[in-house]
Design brief:
This protein is mostly beta strands. Helix content is 0%, strand content 68%. It is built from no helices and five strands. The chain has a five-stranded mixed β-barrel.
Length: 60
Amino acid sequence: MCLATVYKESDDTVICRNVSKIIVDDDTVIIRDIMGEETTVEGKILMVDLANSIVKLRCD
C-alpha cells in the first residue's frame, strides 16, 4: 500500500500523514488517513508526487 503525506505549501507544515484518500470539492480538500480520521482544509492541491508519496496544498 502506498500512503501519502500532505504538506502545506507555504511552510511545508505536515497537515496529515498516512493518507489513503483525498476528496476534492471545489475549494475544499477532504483528507482521510488509514485509520479513517478526516481532515478538511480550504485550499487547492498544487502538486502530487506519487513516487515519493507527497501531496502539497495551497491553504486559504
